[in-house]
Amino acid sequence: MGSIGRRLVGVVFASAFIALTAVGCESVGTGDEEDVVPAGSTSPWELAGLCQENITRHAGVRQQELADGVVRWQCGDRPGVDGADRGQEYCEYHAVSNGKIISTYDQIDQTKPLYCFFSSVYLDNDPKRDTALATELSKAANLNAKIPATMVRMKGQFNSRGAATTLVSDAMAVPTDVNDQRQAACFLYGVNNPTKAASLEKACKGKNLATKTGWTKVTKLGVTIPKEGDATYEAYRDLVSCMSVGRLGNGGGDWRMSDPHITQVVVRANDECGCSYNALPTALEGFLQGTWSSKDALPPGCRRVKVAGADYQQMTICEVPKPEIGDLATSLDYSENLDGFCNERFGTNIVLTAPLRAVENPGSCTTKTGAFCSAFTKTAK
Amino acid sequence: MRRGFKSLLAAIGLAATAALGSASCEDAGTSDEEDVAETKNLFGEDRVADVLKGHLDKVPRSWAEFEALFGMGRKCARTDSKEVFVVEESSSRATGMQEMTDQLLPRAVVTGCNTGTGNPDDEPSYRSYSLMAALFSSPDAANAAKGDPMVLDRVEVIALDRKTGLYNFYVMTPSADPKKPGTLQRVQLRPDGKVYTYTKDPAKTKTVTKVSEDRLCNNCHVNMGPLMNEMHEPWTNWVSTHKTLPETADTLSGETASIVSEAIAYDGSHGRSSLANDLEKTMTAAIRVWNEGISTAPNTGFISENMSGDQPEGLGGLLKSVFCQTELQYASSFSVVPIELFVDPGAVAGGAFQAPPPYGTEIFPILMPIRSEMDKRIETALIKKKILKQSTVIAIRLIDDRNDIFSSKRCAVLDPVIAGLPTDSTAIDGWIRTTLRGQSATLYKVGTTKTYADTLLKDAATTDETKTARTKYLADASTAYQTDIAKLKTIKGRDELKTRSQSRKDNARKMFDRDANPMPILVDEKKGT
To answer: Are strands A351-354 and A288-290 parallel, antiparallel or unpaired?
Structure first.
């Protein structure tokens, strides 16, 4: 199991609330440019809200993911992440000009192409690989300039293979929680019955629904725990499984896209289908980059880094079209925040794939019935 | 020879006294076809002409024939995506007007099949946006009752013209004789502001040219460019990572089912997809190129065509995008509330304002009108073409930094600006700055807003001066913004915000107060929750 968990996330949370309205470039307001991330949840009710949002974010591709036995999310950060905290999703990105990481328009070498460079090479990937990969990156087919070895691997402590393995391991071990189950049921009932949402929030938010008294009040409002076969059962199970991200042994970022999504699928696969997973192998140097339509495609204008003449799936180069470089000069929002540009322009359409099936213990998915397991285990080992 | 800028201004002058009812430049007897960049005939120079010019025997009679002939849709050579983007609707635009029904009536936008080859340098999405088709459904379609409501015998296409940089609009329909090829019609907005049609019916020897009383495509495509109302996350109603079609899609059948399943297989039966997430980027590139022109062809695109008089709006129309609005986009809350509910992002540019998260389970606003990509792109293009300075544009935004659209205060400045517009394009920015400076005392809120605006309008302002003024303005704006977003936390505050959103929706309805319009279905805000 990996040794680097997501405990460091807590450090980020400490200043999370500041970020929501922070004013960055002009150094007004808090001046806290380093901590621009969304707020985490402060109650299971809020956690349910974050999870519901993340489930919705991936609802359209759910059936494909289940059929393929994978979990996917976008490389680009979600709204609310900015500044030095960019790169929260096992994927980091930078604007690169003439081999240098740059952050402002003034730093662009106008005689050279401007690139957005995306790396999902784990922080704890073998450091001996850095030089070889940087040499490849420097070649004409790639960034065509001398690239420092430090550009290869991601820098965020949470962007490591060990952290990912720990996340999966923790998700398999997370116990059920009655309060979470009831909070999820309450929240979902409110989503499906908007006229009751306010009274449900009053009855559930910040309350311990594991107690008989607390739960009785809620059931009087019509809330029940959905049972298999109920119309809301799948949505409920997705929600309560996602909420496990708040109780993982080593923590998880509930406002991110990757952590809650991985947790949601692993918890269900493990609890309901019996699937278990091994540590991510060292041969996997990072999560795979692709698009929503294919793990083998990239957005227009992007190409894979060539390593030893072959496509390398953990590093992508997107060349900024010249007319769009001109746009940057006119944009106060991007001219001093090229990472923000790279995120919006390409990062939101680069998709990471966690190949759960590849690390599944053969024969572990023993239950293959029910809506979730029948879909998820079709291609099980 | 293209019409010069001065003659354009003369045309604007005539238009300004519209009561004269005078003939447009076209009718003024120039009959100088070389003056008009757009061809006055059936074809432009585009991908439709590439296939059909000289081959009118191939004009498709149906969507399936179109797909096969142009290698688009289900016949696109891509294996990961057929570029069939689908939006869920229960209303139909089959008659050109929006009619509500209780049926699932999906629409589709099909882009030109980008296999990665054939794109010019610096335009990696060209093959997608250079040819786009629209499909819509109708409850009156022949097989609608059987779950197959898509209208497949009317193919509507826009194709980017390589010579003008504008989109050419085409409609392909079956001819009266089913044995003959289809009828091809081009719909064109001409410099006189009239909509012309050029129709080639295979049963007739000549192309028929007419002035159309109905504005046809121009009813919705007010600038004759591409449209995507819900262009950004969560792409409300579009099939995207956020949503598939509803369960009632199971009842779709035939061609409709086959086509919409390309957006994503709701039963997981295949791995291809065409999600609005990707269409957003294609549309953004399309609007940029259409406005700024094709990089390899100078003086092309909507801006140049208006500057040279080959489009009816002229410079005044372009400036309308800067001061007022010509089109709209529609934003919805998801992980964050649209920032436009609180502040004009153009005014606080550089401030890194973060949109706030929604409060509680009630997600609002949904489909709130905001400033369009089109208007923003025109503004950017005018800066890039050095017609306007960036500082001027920000000063215009600061006139009303709470409202990116429907600002009567900001829009009221447009008429006096146009009235005195110089004929020399290099003097336009100076004239606007002079006008704004002259009204500074009444246009700008006293304090840091006015100081910032005055500095932006000062011709000799140093970079440091401007930065200092901006920083002070942004600090005040940030304080006001935080107070404003706190309103999300109370019912009273949310009601106030809903009033703002409702006002925008009401204004949008007024802006497009006609049966055929580009608006999505707007749901009124409900207060008290």
So the answer is: antiparallel
